[in-house]
Specification:
heterodimer, A: about 210 residues, mainly alpha, 12 helices, B: about 775 residues, alpha+beta, seven-stranded antiparallel beta sheet, two-stranded parallel ribbon, 9 strands, extended, mechanosensitive monoatomic ion channel activity (chain B), membrane (chain B), transmembrane (chain B), TMC (chain B), TMC_dom (chain B)
Chain lengths: ~210, ~775
């Protein structure tokens, strides 16, 4: 029975993404999604059921568990803005965070993640929240204020006191660490694929 | 459609929008592309994709493996996250030293000690390899049997080729000695060059804090303990950057600071002079003892010089530390001063030690003549009854232990160095245990029953002394370099010492030390330590080279015995082992007439390269400044275009303003202060009716003023020129030095743009007021629109 369902899903994936590599990752991603809550997520997605996993389950994934920005990541990628993700949102999140995503896309989503109040600008309070999350509230008020002022001073090009998307992109594109930092979830996945499933996919596609 | 499929990945649309679009486009493409090449091509493509993926995975695994192989990496990362980069830099330096010593050890062990042990005559076969009869009674300590083993110079035989491999022992000994020094020079200079390259290339600190805040979290972390370490290291790095920032803003009372600094330097000079005199005094005393015979004196007198040197090395740096609180420098600069002073101290100590050693060498050489005379008498006694002629062979079997031995100053030198290093090591470990560990234990447990709070008050926990430890390491290495020629066992000893040090100090740091109050970043490159190491390398090879070149080797021990100078072995090898023409070529090449011009040429080349590198650096800086200015302009232009878009202006304004900005930026390159430059451009842009633009730029007094005037081409020829013919007028006043992180321009830029629409004249006056760092008001822009 499992095989039949697997075939159905693979069939859908096959129709949408004839690229072998993408199918390989997508089926693994789907199974990671399903493993979070097997009773909620059906194996059969042909009818496109409306299933959302609550934020607590997403936030407990090992890749995101220690990340100080996990809540923001979930909120940015979820449809309802609360952190409850459908399969589409889940795939979205991992596709952006994978190593295949282009730099500009990552920069765009990074901007959204760091924008806590969703006003399309990173203002001072957003920066303060970011800094406190990064250092777990270890810096004093004075130090936090100083760092935020310095950041605005450095990166704000149109001089409106807050960072717009252009300012952010201009600054982040020059950063040496940016690509390495924003996620390499890809290689975390390589170990979780089971052999039989891989063979099945190969059979179907080749 | 195909392009849409290719670029779909880069678009920031949510998935539910992307999927249907993708499906549509794919259906479309399939319909019109046909089924050509689908079946077969797919297999090959899938196979290629799989191979590529496998290759990427292999590369990644190999990288992971390589990183895991680096010794002590996790330890050092943990220390870095708790104590900051300056403490971690010490451990990185230690690990790098360990690598160098490993190579030195393999050279001396593989090419000198092992051949002698395996292929030459064994212990006890010839006189120089046996403990003499007189000494055999008390030979069981270190000085006895060890002295007559592969570990020291004296054991080696001067036979030209040994064993079935015909291994040239003396040549190998000499070349290994020279090779260790050459290798060390090469490695140190290569590391310095690499550090300098990294430093100069990536000196972009324009977005320091922004990058720290947005890119320091490592999204790959999946382990809670690693996450804790990462949080600690991020916090430490922020604190370091904040300290840097605060230091660059401080401005104090200059005169008081200068006076205090001069006073501190004077005190330090007094200390150095005092320690120099003390060592000189002690060395004189030990020479007196040696003349009277060492047996009359106890342990302290025998080891007085070593102990005094170690004690001075322990207490003087603390004194310097106290004195340096007078100076009030940035912590990194204070560290450099501290290092410089301790360096001077150790150097004085070391050279006094060497002078003492030279005295002893001269003593031994004077003894040689006496011993030679005694030996001829002894030999004559041996043949007393038998062969009175001058036969060279000794037919009578004499036990090698009984043959009278000549003095061996090289082994004595080697022994002194070994003793010095061992006492140094012991001193370091004991100070570590007492100074750090015992102190921490006392503070911890006596705190309950003490009057004042021990943890905050007087002793408290100690901080890790970066400067003292680094210098200890550097001088230790200097002593190894000095002594390695005379005692091949020294690199091995040092390797062991470094290995133990690493574990002991890592444990001690994590267990007994607290992070420094003011965490500062170690200098970006490690070039300061490298420079000191280079100086020490040079200074420590000088004595060895002097002894090789000027003092004849002992006649009775070592691989060079019997030669008049040690480097004669090279001459001998050239004559006997190489063909004749080789020797001739060499003698031509070492002709002074050839060598001197070559040296001169090299000096000139160095000078030329140095001056070109300076000009490149200067050009680099200029380009950076221009880039920043252009960035500013381009952002303004973007704003202007965006604004003009919303006002429904026609295309020509956009095209002309963009082209005029292009010319403007070109003019930046050839603009010099005070000189106005005029750039005219007329454009034949096919689709758009562009005006001619006139650009005038003047730079003076720290400001740059740009005027751009656009005039319609057609109207220029007619005699009547109305107001409408002037298409736009753009005025800009820029203070120079804009857009650098630290220095705000003295006042603000002003931009004024006038242009005509079909019915209206628009005037935009853009005035940016940038507040100072301390105020909290937001910048204001004033725009006037008529």
């Amino acid at each position: 029975m499992k095989n039949k369902h697997l075939q159905k899903i693979s069939f859908i994936i096959l129709k949408m993404f004839p690229n072998f590599k993408q199918q390989y990752f997508l089926s693994r991603l789907f199974h990671r999604y399903r493993d979070l809550a097997p009773q909620l997520v059906p194996l059969d997605y042909t009818n496109q059921p409306d299933v959302r996993l609550p934020y607590e389950l997403i936030g407990s994934m090992p890749e995101l568990k220690d990340n100080p920005f996990r809540q923001r990541i979930a909120e940015v990628f979820s449809e309802d803005g609360e952190g409850n993700m459908t399969l589409d949102d889940f795939l979205d999140m991992f596709s952006v965070l994978s190593e295949m995503a282009p730099r500009d896309l990552k920069a765009y989503y990074a901007f959204k993640i760091y924008d806590f109040n969703n006003d399309n600008f990173i203002c001072k309070s957003d920066l303060e929240k970011t800094l406190n999350k990064l250092t777990r509230n270890e810096l004093t008020e004075d130090e936090v204020r100083m760092v935020c002022e310095k950041v605005i001073d450095e990166a704000d090009l149109d001089n409106d006191g807050r960072l717009s998307l252009e300012d952010f992109q201009h600054m982040i594109v020059r950063a040496p660490d940016f690509l390495r930092e924003v996620c390499n979830f890809h290689h975390r996945f390589t170990s979780t694929m089971r052999g039989k499933m891989r063979k099945k996919i190969q059979e179907i596609t080749l | 459609r195909k392009k849409l499929i290719a670029t779909l990945r880069g678009k920031p649309w949510p998935m539910r929008k992307k999927l249907p679009t993708l499906r549509e486009s794919q259906v479309f493409v399939e319909k019109y592309e046909g089924a050509l090449g689908k079946g077969r091509g797919r297999r090959l493509y899938a196979y290629k994709v799989m191979m590529r993926k496998k290759w990427m995975k292999f590369q990644r695994d190999f990288e992971n493996f390589k990183t895991a192989c680096i010794p002590w990496e996790m330890k050092i990362k943990e220390i870095e996250s708790h104590f900051g980069s300056s403490v971690a830099s010490y451990f990185l330096f230690l690990r790098w030293m360990y690598g160098i010593n490993m190579i030195l050890f393999s050279l001396t062990f593989g090419l000198v000690m092992v051949p002698e042990a395996l292929m030459a005559r064994p212990y006890g076969s010839i006189p120089r390899k046996t403990v003499p009869r007189e000494e055999q009674a008390n030979a069981m300590d270190f000085a006895g049997y060890a002295k007559y083993s592969v570990l020291f110079y004296g054991y080696y035989n001067n036979q030209r080729a040994i064993g079935w491999l015909k291994f040239r022992m003396p040549l190998s000994y000499f070349l290994v000695g020279v090779g260790t020094v050459a290798y060390s020079y090469m490695v140190v200079i290569r590391t310095m060059a690499r550090n300098a390259k990294e430093d100069g290339g990536g000196d972009d600190t324009s977005f320091n804090f922004s990058w720290k805040i947005f890119t320091s979290w490592d999204y790959l972390i999946g382990n809670t303990e690693t996450a804790d370490n990462k949080f600690a290291s991020i916090t430490t790095s922020f604190k370091e950057a904040i300290v840097e920032e605060q230091e660059s803003r401080k401005d104090d009372n200059i005169h008081l600071t200068r006076f205090l600094r001069v006073l501190a330097n004077f005190l330090v000079l007094c200390c150095l002079a005092g320690s120099g005199y003390l060592i000189y005094f002690v060395v004189r005393r030990s020479q007196k003892f040696a003349l009277e015979g060492l047996d009359n004196y106890g342990w302290w007198e025998r080891n007085e010089v070593n102990m005094v040197m170690s004690l001075l090395g322990m207490f003087c740096p603390m004194l310097f530390d106290v004195i340096s609180t007078l100076e009030n420098y940035h912590p990194r600069i204070a560290l450099q001063w501290q290092l410089g002073r301790i360096f001077a101290l150790f150097l004085g100590n070391l050279y006094t030690f060497i002078i003492a050693l030279m005295d002893q060498i001269n003593l031994k050489r004077a003894e040689e003549e006496k011993v030679k005379f005694n030996m001829t008498i002894w030999q004559a006694n041996l043949y007393n009854g038998t062969l009175p002629e001058n036969s060279t062979a000794i037919p009578i079997m004499v036990d090698p232990a009984d043959v009278p031995r000549g003095p061996c100053w090289e082994t004595m030198v080697g022994q002194e160095f070994v003793r010095l290093i061992i006492s140094d090591t012991m001193t370091t470990y004991i100070t570590l245990l007492i100074g750090d560990f015992l102190r921490a234990v006392l503070v911890r447990f006596l705190n309950h029953c003490w009057c004042w709070d021990l943890e905050y008050g007087f002793p408290s926990y100690s901080e890790f002394d970066v400067s003292g430890n680094v210098l200890g390491l550097i001088f230790n290495q200097g002593m190894i370099w000095m002594g390695a020629f005379y005692a091949p066992c020294l690199p091995a000893l040092n390797l062991l010492r470094l290995h133990v040090s690493m574990y002991l100090q890592c444990w001690a740091v994590m267990c007994c030390n607290v992070p420094q109050e003011r965490v500062f970043k170690a200098s970006g490159s490690n070039n300061f330590y490298m420079a000191m190491l280079l100086v020490i390398l040079f200074l420590s090879t000088l004595p060895a080279i002097y002894t090789i070149v000027s003092i004849p080797p002992s006649f009775d021990c070592g691989p060079f015995s019997g030669k008049s100078r040690m480097f004669d072995v090279i001459q001998e090898t050239l004559e006997t082992d190489f063909p004749a023409w080789f020797g001739k070529v060499f003698s031509y090449a070492s002709n002074p007439g050839l060598v001197l011009p070559f040296l001169l040429l090299m000096v000139l080349a160095i000078y030329y390269l140095h001056s070109t590198s300076k000009t490149y650096k200067h050009a680099n800086l200029e380009l950076k400044k221009k880039l920043q200015a252009i960035n500013f302009i381009s952002v303004y232009l973007v704003n202007a275009i965006l604004f003009s878009k919303t006002q429904h202006l026609s295309n020509w304004l956009l095209a002309s303003s963009s082209i005029c900005i292009l010319f403007y930026s070109h003019s930046l390159c050839c603009l010099s202060p005070g000189q106005p430059s005029i750039v005219c451009s007329s454009l034949l842009y096919s689709k758009v009716n562009c005006p001619a633009t006139l650009l005038l730029a003047v730079r003076a007094n720290g400001y740059q003023c740009n005027l751009v005037l656009g005039v319609r081409l057609q109207q220029l020829s007619s005699t009547v020129i109305t107001l409408r013919d002037y298409v736009f007028f753009f005025f800009q006043l820029l203070p120079l030095g804009v857009a650098t992180a630290d220095h705000l321009p003295p006042s603000c830029p002003i931009h004024c743009l006038l242009y005509f629409d079909t019915n209206h004249l628009h005037v935009h006056l853009h005035y940016i007021h940038k507040p100072s760092l301390r105020s909290t008001s937001s910048p204001s822009t004033r725009q006037l629109h008529l």
